[in-house]
């Protein structure tokens, strides 16, 4: 190596050593707790990392499990941001002082029907997408059993559905918690728990997460309670599944995005939140040409046959009540005592 080349080589090595060892440059990381479908988490994180030159990684868990992890790691946070999952546990995390304050400028692009919620809760949590609660049915299996298609929550109590209904466990799953909250809101606690007790006779599986739709696709259960897009996604893969909006009205939730208190990569977490709320960050799933969650950015184009938020008969969901950590504790201990552990 010539003398000049050798100097140049040393200079480059020293510069890269500086960049790698200097905390400002070395820590270009982001750890995301992701509560979307696993493949959606992969795509989002990969696209974000490439575009922003940030070394992002994710861990996927269901909503209740993620909240449990954030609580347990309070004194030593292991992730920077929580992306996805039903909104109530995000609000509970805020209630418990587990979130970092950040109001993203991209909140100004939210759909008009969610503007009041963003104004109310947006200091700590942003809304990345919307999900509509309903039923998934396996049409082959119902035909085999000679059963009519259920249209209402109340149809699920028919004894002919014994061992045919799947419900995600409200303790671990945001889907299950949304269902529980929906019943309580519609009917009050007493009637809701009496319904769940009767429904328990017909339950085939209490699954850990709302994304577990393979049992329904295989026909191990003929009916599943969950978010409509998960059933549409199974249908798109060829399963004999239909999604059903229930007669009692469309209950829904919003997918939360919150920065975790004490995030080590705070600036990168803010960049991620802004991106996940942008048209570009929300059109990824649309580009996959699969019916995934409904975007909340008003400029986002959606699949022609996707559920349109303004065509739904939405119930007035009480996020204040079900996002309170006290309420959640009370409801879930009732659930555990009266249904899960009571035989
Ligand atoms: N976010 C998305 C996009 C989902 O599809 C689901 C469930 O279907 C959830 C969040 C809630 O997941 P979990 O029930 O695992 O908490």
Automatic annotation (TrEMBL):
Where does the sequence pass through the membrane? none
Q: Which UniProt keywords apply?
A: Signal
Single GO molecular function: thiamine pyrophosphate binding
A single GO CC term for this protein reads:
outer membrane-bounded periplasmic space
Does the record carry Endoplasmic reticulum as a key word?
no
- Hey, what's the signal peptide range on this chain? 1-26
Query: Sorted alphabetically, which CDD domains does this protein's record hold?
Result: PBP2_Fbp_like_1
**Matching Pfam families:** SBP_bac_6
Instruction: Please list the GO biological process terms of this entry.
Output: thiamine transport
Entries under PANTHER family matching the protein: ABC TRANSPORTER SUBSTRATE-BINDING PROTEIN, THIAMINE-BINDING PERIPLASMIC PROTEIN-RELATED
Protein name (database record): ABC transporter, solute-binding protein
What is the taxonomic lineage of the source species?
Answer: Bacteria, Pseudomonadati, Pseudomonadota, Gammaproteobacteria, Pasteurellales
């Amino acid at each position: 190596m010539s003398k000049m080349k050798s100097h140049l080589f040393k200079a480059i090595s020293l510069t890269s050593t500086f960049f790698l060892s200097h905390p400002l440059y070395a820590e270009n990381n982001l750890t995301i707790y992701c509560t979307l479908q696993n493949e959606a988490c992969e795509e989002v994180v990969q696209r974000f990392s490439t575009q922003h030159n940030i070394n992002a990684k994710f861990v996927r868990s269901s909503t209740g499990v993620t909240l449990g992890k954030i609580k347990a790691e309070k004194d030593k946070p292991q992730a920077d941001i929580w992306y996805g999952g039903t909104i109530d546990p995000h609000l509970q995390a805020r209630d418990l002082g587990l979130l970092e304050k950040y109001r993203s400028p991209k909140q100004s692009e939210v759909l008009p029907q969610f503007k009041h919620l963003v104004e109310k809760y947006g200091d700590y949590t942003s809304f990345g997408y919307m999900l509509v609660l309903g039923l998934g049915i396996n049409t082959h299996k119902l035909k085999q059993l000679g059963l009519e298609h259920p249209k209402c929550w109340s149809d699920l109590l028919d004894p002919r559905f014994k061992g045919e209904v799947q419900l995600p466990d409200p303790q671990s799953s945001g889907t299950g918690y949304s269902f529980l909250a929906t019943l309580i809101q519609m009917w009050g606690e007493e009637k809701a728990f009496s319904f769940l007790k009767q429904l328990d006779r017909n339950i085939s599986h209490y699954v850990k997460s709302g994304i577990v739709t393979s049992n329904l696709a295989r026909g191990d259960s003929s009916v599943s309670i969950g978010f409509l897009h998960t059933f549409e996604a199974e249908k798109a893969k060829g399963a004999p599944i239909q999604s059903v909006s229930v007669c009692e009205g469309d209950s829904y939730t919003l997918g939360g995005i919150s920065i975790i208190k004490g995030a080590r990569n705070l600036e990168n977490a803010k960049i991620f939140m802004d991106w996940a709320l942008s048209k570009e960050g929300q059109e990824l799933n649309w580009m996959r040409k699969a019916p995934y969650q409904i975007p909340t950015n008003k400029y986002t184009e959606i699949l022609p046959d996707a559920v349109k938020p303004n065509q739904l008969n939405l119930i007035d969901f009480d996020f204040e009540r079900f996002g309170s950590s006290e309420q959640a504790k009370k409801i879930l201990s009732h659930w555990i005592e009266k249904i899960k552990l009571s035989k």
